[in-house]
Design goal:
Elements (H helix, E strand, L loop, with lengths): L1 H26 E6 L10 E5 L5 H13 L7 E4 L6 H9 L2 E4 L6 H13 L1 E4 L14 E2 H10 L2 E8 L1 H4 L11 E7 L15 H19 L5 H4 L2 E2 L8
Parallel strand pairs: 1-8, 2-5, 2-7, 3-4, 6-9
Antiparallel strand pairs: 7-8
Helix pairs in contact: 4-5, 5-7
Length: 236
């Protein structure tokens, strides 16, 4: 039975890649760079900016396309799981629910375990940008990284807000979209610092700066130094 379930999971992953590949080719002009920076194994975090509901779908597809049978884990707001069919689909892709208001200790523990050994996708801003600009990050990301020590890969996402902006339900087709995966963020020196607010903020600052570098928006310097108050980081 276990072998059958594993084979079913792999078949579903492969089918997902094929279907989404066809949709991508028919709906947008997508460029992906830096895929070789994604580790094949071990605990690592794909940290990306967030401008559209398409972001998690495209990022998951890009990774699954490169590693078809390797799951990508990601937190998402629990409201998405209220629809049983959608919840089942999301869970099959490695997405799990988190409560955005209050402290979801179970989800925090799960994230820490996953970051130590698996591939995880997160959006440090915690919500979609309404302007397309890189917003302030959430300090909880810095703490999670400090406590789990994953390899952190910054990802710049551009163009998805032109296809499906926040607040819109009908997509605009054939726009240019980019996914740029950067080299791992150098955080080694941070791990020798005390476990405190300032250390978490420095880790977050470096991650946000690396994402900004992938976006090529040098004027983001005044934003990447700002830190949001702790809150669960999901997708909305």
């Amino acid at each position: 039975m276990a072998r059958f379930k594993e084979q079913l999971r792999k078949s579903w992953m492969l089918l997902s890649v094929v279907v989404i590949s066809a949709l991508v080719r028919c709906t947008m002009r997508l460029t992906i760079t830096g895929g070789q920076n994604i580790p094949r194994t071990g605990g690592h975090l794909l940290a990306a900016n967030h401008v559209s509901l398409l972001d998690p779908l495209l990022l998951a597809w890009a990774v699954l396309k490169r590693f078809p049978f390797s799951p990508l884990n990601a937190p998402a707001k629990e409201e998405l799981f209220r629809n049983p069919a959608l919840g089942l689909l999301l869970r099959s892709w490695g997405v799990f629910p988190v409560r955005r208001n209050g402290r979801d200790l179970a989800s925090i523990r799960k994230l820490l375990d996953l970051l130590r050994t698996r591939r995880v996708m997160m959006f440090p801003e915690g919500t979609r940008s309404t302007t397309g600009e890189l917003g302030k990050g959430n300090r909880v990301v810095g703490r999670l990284v400090f406590e789990s020590r994953p390899v952190v890969i910054p990802v710049g996402v551009t163009g998805t807000q032109q296809i499906l902006p926040k607040g819109k339900s009908l997509p605009r087709l054939f726009r240019k979209v980019r996914l740029d995966f950067g080299p791992a963020v150098d955080l080694e020196s941070c791990y020798h610092l005390p476990a405190c607010k300032e250390t978490y903020e420095e880790i977050l600052r470096r991650i946000m700066a690396a994402i900004a570098s992938q976006l090529g928006k040098h004027r983001q310097g005044n934003l990447i130094g700002r830190v949001a108050e702790p809150e669960m980081v999901g997708t909305r």
